[in-house]
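Standup notes, structure subgroup. Blocker cleared on the iron/sulfur cluster input:
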Amino acid sequence: MPNLRDFTLEALEEYLSDQGQPPWRARQIFRWLARGAKNFEEMTDLPKALRRHLTQTADISLPRLTTQEKGADGTIKLALRLSDGALIETVIIPERDHYTLCLSSQVGCAMGCAFCLTAKMEFRRNLSPGEITGQIILAREILGEEASRLTNLVFMGMGEPLANYEALLTALRNILHPLGFGFSKRRVTVSTSGLVPQLLRLSQEIVVKLAISLHAPEEGLRSQLMPVNRTWPLKELLSVCRRLKLPRGWRITFEYLLLEGINDSRATAQKLAWILRGIPAKINLIPFNPAPGLPFRCPSEERILAFQAELLKAGYTTIIRKSKGRDISAACGQLYARVA
Ligand code: SF4
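Run returned:
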């Protein structure tokens, strides 16, 4: 049975037209799905016979919320069980005037970054488009009356989003569609470890904000930290970043995890500033969150500020991103769901 949450509006129109239904029926259903309808009976503007028929022939089930944990800073980590029993995590992050949802795109991750707990999980599978957008529906339910303040999405949870390209693209189309989830393209960020061909393709197929996990300004160190660099070296990644056609005024965010004694010296900051020249860039510095099983430490405040100062001096907007949800392991690189 197909899950209709995996369809774009166009695909849904085609599916229903094969059953003799007009395109506007698809639009009605598409809207209900984004609003979080749990069954066809809730879709009260559909004829009863069609509701009955769809109940027997199509699926609209969602991931199931298993647990939620709230951190001292208000961050909420949700564990969701998928239809095959796999678990994923999604994190609601409170900001000053809105919420951001950190979405997962895969069960586990095959990219093997040395500093990431998700990399320690076995990679199980890609999420379907409906499993990706289902995280938004469940987060909205948890937020209740505050759901309208969930305005920002970041694909920085479990998985490499661009390694699940087709599902990501379908999910993004539904996320941005005004009859779907209706998010602003300015408020949706896809983060990648640097899959060059998919990055190029994504920028040609849809407009959303892009974030690149860089973490090192030279090939050898980056290959040690991020095995993806052996396939798609920094040089090629940055060359593509220089060629991306971004909307006026947009910049690419470069994420840079600060690891004590490894990539946090002033000289490294200068090298980073140099390699990003010519790219409309802003830099997020993320002090490492120590976690059991990961052999890294967080640099001192002094070193972090000195690193930032070098980048500011070179003219880059550089933010030290305070990781939220540390106490509930919901911070960057700490999502790790056990398959029970
Ligand atoms: S940092 Fe991202 S891409 Fe790297 S292993 Fe972790 S989840 Fe995968």
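Discussed briefly. The domain at 4-57 is CATH 1.10.150.530 (DNA polymerase; domain 1).
Next: hand off to the docking folks.
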